[in-house]
Design a protein that fits this description.
The structure is a single chain. By secondary structure, the protein is an alpha+beta fold. Helices cover 36% and strands 28% of the residues. It has a 5-stranded antiparallel beta sheet, with helices on one face. Helix 1 runs parallel beside helix 3.
């Protein structure tokens, strides 16, 4: 399940919105959620992969190891556009 609008991560979601995406957490069961990105990601998928993102088919989201990794990837992609 993908949960958007994570409290305290508004600045990251603002970055994601600049790319037509939504930031949030991909959660499986009652366990730990991984930061992720959903939305119009087809055009930036290679950049996401290069930033260490992995596709989570169950959530239909690109997931990252941590919020800092997601934020850095978004900043890099935005700067390149």
């Amino acid at each position: 399940m993908f949960i958007s609008n994570i409290h305290g991560k508004e600045s990251i979601n603002t970055l994601a919105q600049q790319l037509g995406c939504t930031a949030g957490e991909c959660v499986h069961g009652a366990g730990y959620g991984r930061p992720g990105l959903i939305g119009n990601t087809f055009g930036i998928k290679d950049q996401l992969k290069a930033a260490g993102a992995r596709w989570d088919g169950a959530c239909k989201a690109w997931t990252f190891g941590g919020w800092g990794d997601l934020e850095a990837a978004l900043n890099t992609i935005i700067a390149a556009e």
